[in-house]
Amino acid sequence: MKLIDLRSDTVTKPTPAMRRAMMDAEVGDDVYGEDPTMNLLQERAAEIFEKEAALFVPTGSMGNQIAVKLHTRPGAEVVIEERGHIYNYEMAAMSAISGALARPVKSADGSGLLEWGDIEAAIHANDAPYYVAPTKLIALENSHNLAGGAVMTRERTEELCAQAHRLGIPVHLDGARIFNAAVSLNESVAALARPADSVMFCLSKGLGAPIGSMLLGTKDFINEARAWRKLLGGGMRQAGVIAAAALVALEESPARLADDHRNARRLAEGLAEIEGVEVDLRRVITNIVIFDVAETNLDANTVCAELQKRGVLASAFSQRRIRMVTHYDVSRDDIDRALAALQSVIEERRAQSGSEERGATISAQ
Ligand SMILES: Cc1ncc(COP(=O)(O)O)c(C=O)c1O
Description:
Blueprint: E1 4-5, H1 16-24, H2 36-49, E2 53-57, H3 60-71, E3 77-81, H4 85-88, H5 93-98, E4 101-105, H6 116-120, E5 135-141, H7 154-166, E6 171-174, H8 178-185, H9 189-193, E7 198-202, E8 213-217, H10 219-231, H11 240-252, H12 257-273, E9 288-292, H13 300-309, E10 312-313, E11 315-316, E12 321-325, H14 332-364
Parallel strand pairs: 1-10, 3-4, 3-5, 5-6, 6-7
Antiparallel strand pairs: 2-8, 7-8, 9-12, 11-12
Helix pairs in contact: 1-11, 2-11, 3-10, 12-14
The protein binds pyridoxal-5'-phosphate.
Pyridoxal-5'-phosphate (PLP) binds near residues 59 and 202.
């Protein structure tokens, strides 16, 4: 039985075209800047994003953390939405590497998408009194993973960046899934990234490359980032082998992300029909579906364990919430099978509690 892996879009395996490209890749020593395939990938990424320069990094976390390092100094604060990946899922690297402190803020409407009002209240401008840490960076995320793949429009990004720049504060964009955001908003990734001072995007998620992310910004910023990548142990030698797969991902994968979004929509609509499952359909915009199982009387871990027995993998996000992510290894049929599996988990539970209740009534008599 095929395992349907909805835990994340990071589980995608390289396509045959990627594997062929890896096999045939021309390579050199990338620490010397001599890997032609890597150089091509970096030039191509910079061109697509209309930024001066790009740097390949082994992981999105490294790309984000190098950006935090370069934009801040020890003792500085970084304003970030409270569910932001940089703050929640990167091992407190912001404090360990940069000596910076996260200032998490809530989005007033609960969507995860900050408005200037949400950010402004948390900012300590440079002329703040000596006892508060100055805000040196605002970190945005598009699409927003923990907020269910919510997307920030170009207009909102422009507005937030313009306001930040007015105060002399740079903006880093965690665009791990910016191609998903761009497809869903019908914008180019360049337009979504333009107002940000730096942007990171992942090749290894919905785009399907086996390894890697890119950090983009000005030439000076990327030159410094290259030194920090080396310092962190991320300088690789014949990295063209992985850049070759990444180039295929960059050129070919964005066009098919809309399929993942359609599958996520179908999944969410199916979930909404299952008794006891709650999903906010308005929030399912890209390839991430987060739903609540509290009303099924099962906790999220139990549901995931039961799903696994039926060949479906999902991630428990909290006691009651589960995340499922669509990607190119998940077909429309797989979505239907996943829905049927969840339905059977819940029905089995209901049947069990029904017989337990009957048993209790009998023994009470
Ligand atoms: C929004 C976001 N940013 C950054 C990352 C980090 O990427 P990596 O796992 O390559 O370090 C992830 C990974 O899931 C993510 O979802």
